[in-house]
Design goal:
The chain is an alpha/beta fold. It contains 15 helices and 20 strands. The structure holds zinc ion. Belongs to the DNA repair metallo-beta-lactamase (DRMBL) family.
């Protein structure tokens, strides 16, 4: 029997610190009922027709009418703390769905009556406990949090619970669907909850207690939801990629998103002819321009991952970065043959970085047991065959991104001091972008201290600015709804001006 001599397990896997919604606010921001920061003027009436969401949809990609005037800004500052009425009671109702109908129309999955039955027309809703979040991976709170939009209500179980309102852009108009909206508890009128991929800022809110309705996702994402979050499998409805599935009368197709394993773009084709594409998180690439669903028929509304929707975000292709990482590794090992190579990674994503090193050097990959379990769930023989359970048996280790600090790595090296005298580490993230580096990887300067060398490499699983532009120009959608970095009006206006430019002519 071989006993593992691995060091004490590295810190828990963590999630990708995306520059997500509300990034500029560091997660501390008061949001209105639509999920936008509460700097917007109150309409003065509770009319749903004049809600920000309704205006937003009406205005297509031209949001100029939504900008604050100076006077509005002053008023909204005053209004901010004075308590706000809910402008958007329920977008599903605006779109003509009655709550009772919506509940009755659930096609599949366990009954929701136990969780959502709040007495028909009652304004009370079923809500989620604050602790009802991802159980294994910490929720980094990347999506903007909102203390003020949280409401205490009494659930049907008689417990006081807290929830947030589901932002409008997570609800697919004309359907009873939401996308990546699990942290809001039971979303009124929602018959199907779609999950684009297994990153916690998207699945946050899912747990073994989930009982609000069927979850639709890719088969791999479904496996992870069940395995890592212990969600009741009766709620999980895996949808094969590239196949049309009819759900509540809507044709739904998942397409490969080029993000993390299992990540999907979701294409909705409504009975009224409207077509939406929700990108979840994605890295646009040329291959997507050949997806016949996207190029042969117009997408009316594009829900776009705008993580790097700023021209300063230019980074090289994944392939260029992988070649660079392999080259640096080989060169380093020539000079320091007793080097331990470490790649930082989130719970899922960035696998190709250590796979590339593994293939180029013909070495196994060491990851701790919890990561190995996840990687094996991918069902990729290429990867599973390369995993090893003993850190002494290979020079290539995968560690949580948070471990990639000089002091932490120094400690880590001590555990393997018999074999290794130095560490070369890679931190693959779009965040390492620097304007000076841009596309020239050779300009990257590692952090080096003693026998620890750490390279930040711009290996991004989100689209660069120019990739977003190409994608939008191929699709030419009628409307674009950004889903990331929408937390302030200036950002939104800036993005809208890019969209206008791209769709000119
Ligand atoms: Zn993601």
């Amino acid at each position: 029997m071989t006993l593992s001599t691995a060091p004490s397990p590295p810190p828990a896997l963590e999630e990708e610190p995306l520059p997500h919604d509300g990034d500029d606010y560091h997660g501390i921001v008061s949001l209105d009922d639509e999920g936008f920061p509460s700097q917007f003027p109150e309409s003065g009436t509770a009319s749903e027709k004049s809600s920000f969401a309704a205006d937003f949809y009406r205005s297509g990609t031209d949001w100029s009418s939504l900008l604050l005037s100076l006077e509005d800004s002053k008023q909204s500052d005053l209004a901010q703390d004075s308590g706000k009425k809910m402008k958007q009671a329920n977008l599903f109702q605006i779109w003509g769905f009655k709550r009772n109908d919506a509940i009755g129309s659930v096609e599949s999955g366990p009954s929701k009556s136990g969780c959502c039955d709040d007495g028909g027309g009652s304004s009370e809703r079923k809500i989620v406990k604050p602790e009802n979040r991802c159980s294994i991976f910490p929720d980094t709170g990347k999506e903007f949090e909102n203390a003020k939009s949280s409401r205490k209500r009494k659930g049907s179980c008689g417990e006081n619970r807290v929830t947030r309102s589901c932002p409008f852009y997570k609800k697919m108009p004309g359907t009873m669907f939401t996308v990546d909206a699990f942290r809001y508890g039971c979303v009124e009128g929602c018959s199907a909850y779609f999950l684009t991929h297994f990153h916690c800022d998207h699945y946050g809110g899912l747990s073994k207690k989930w009982s609000h309705g069927p979850i639709y996702c890719s088969p791999l994402t479904g496996r992870l939801v069940q395995m890592c979050l212990s969600v009741n499998p009766l709620y999980i409805h895996p949808l094969e990629f590239n196949e049309e599935h009819v759900i509540d009368g809507v044709k739904v197709t998942l397409l490969e998103a080029n993000h993390c394993p299992g990540a999907a773009l979701i294409h909705f084709n409504l009975p009224n002819g409207q077509r939406y594409l929700h990108t979840g998180d994605f890295r646009a690439c040329k291959l997507m321009q050949a997806y016949h669903l996207l190029v042969n028929q117009r997408v009316n509304v594009l829900y776009l991952d705008t993580t790097y929707c700023n021209p300063k975000y230019r980074f090289p292709s994944k392939e260029e970065v992988l070649n660079y990482v392999v080259k640096i590794t080989k060169n380093h090992l020539k000079i320091h043959p007793r080097t331990l190579v470490v790649v930082g990674a989130y719970s899922i994503g960035k696998e190709c970085v250590y796979l590339a090193i593994s293939k180029a050097l013909g070495v196994k990959i060491y990851a701790n047991a919890s990561r190995r379990r996840i990687l094996q769930a991918f069902g990729w023989p290429d990867l599973s065959d390369k995993l090893c359970t003993n850190g002494n048996n290979t020079l290539l280790h995968v560690l949580p991104m948070s471990s990639l600090r000089v002091e932490t790595l120094k400690d880590y090296l001590k555990t393997y001091k018999e074999q290794f005298t130095a560490i070369l580490a890679f931190r693959p993230t779009g965040w390492t972008f620097s304007e000076k580096i841009s596309n020239d990887l050779e300009l990257i300067k590692p952090v080096s201290k003693g026998n620890i060398t750490i390279y930040g490499v711009p290996y991004s699983e989100h689209s660069s600015f120019s990739e977003l532009q190409d994608f939008v120009q191929v699709l030419r959608p009628d409307k674009i709804i950004p889903t990331v970095n929408v937390g302030n009006a200036a950002n939104r206006e800036k993005m809208q001006s890019y969209f206008r430019d791209w769709l000119k002519g």
